[in-house]
Structure formats: C-alpha cells, structure tokens
C-alpha cells in the first residue's frame, strides 16, 4: 500500500488578534472540500473549538474529558479525542485547561533537545 505522507500546515504567532483561528477555520473548511483534514486546536482560548460548539453539543462530546490537553497529559488516546465535524473534516478540540500544561511541559523538556 503506497500511502502519501500527510501535508502539515501550521498557523502560529505569538501575537493575539491576527486571525490565526479565522485562517485555520477557513483553510480547513476549503481544504476539506477535496482532502481529508484534521484540525487540531492548541489555542489556550479554544477559539476554533468554540466555533464548532453547536456541533460538539449535538454529538454530546464532553470537552472537559475529551480534548488535546488530556491527550498531552497521557490520560486519553489521541484516536479517542478526534471526532468528525463535517465531511472530510475532523477536529481535535482544545479546552481552557490547556494553559496549565505550559508550566508542566517546560519543566519536563530535555535541554539536549533544544541544542
């Protein structure tokens, strides 16, 4: 089986209010018209996840238990945190507790990986 490597597009900036979430939403929606897309929300404000709140509510997803924060902590397998939003578009949601991981991960970073 010859599988193509997935393309990864990252939209990131330290500055707030520069349309990172809006760009992510529009780009993922457009790409999902032709390709399978996994939209990963790693915003501590969960802006992309909030945009899909009604669909999340319809699917009865408990964001407190199912989000990228739980995956990063090792409390949830990534496959169990991804769910379908619409045709060809899946979401790995964020949650407001994601900000609490920042300090934990800084302590665990191996300095050799940074050199």
From TrEMBL:
InterPro entries according to UniProt: AAA_dom (IPR025669), DNA_Partitioning_ATPase (IPR050678), P-loop_NTPase (IPR027417)
Stated name of the protein: ATPase, para family protein
Domain AAA: start-end pairs: 7-109
Transmembrane segments: none
Pfam families: AAA_31
Phylogenetic placement of the source organism: Bacteria, Pseudomonadati, Spirochaetota, Spirochaetia, Spirochaetales
């Amino acid at each position: 089986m010859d599988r193509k490597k997935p393309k990864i597009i990252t939209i990131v900036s330290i500055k707030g209010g520069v349309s990172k979430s809006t760009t992510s939403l529009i780009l993922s929606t457009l790409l999902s018209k032709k390709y399978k897309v996994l939209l990963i929300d790693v915003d501590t404000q969960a802006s992309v996840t909030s945009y899909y709140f009604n669909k999340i509510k319809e699917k009865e997803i408990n964001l407190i238990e199912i989000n990228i924060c739980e995956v990063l902590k090792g409390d949830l397998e990534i496959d169990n945190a991804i769910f379908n939003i619409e045709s060809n578009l899946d979401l790995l949601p964020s949650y407001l507790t994601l900000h609490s991981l920042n300090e934990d991960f800084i302590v665990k970073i191996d300095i050799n990986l940074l050199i």
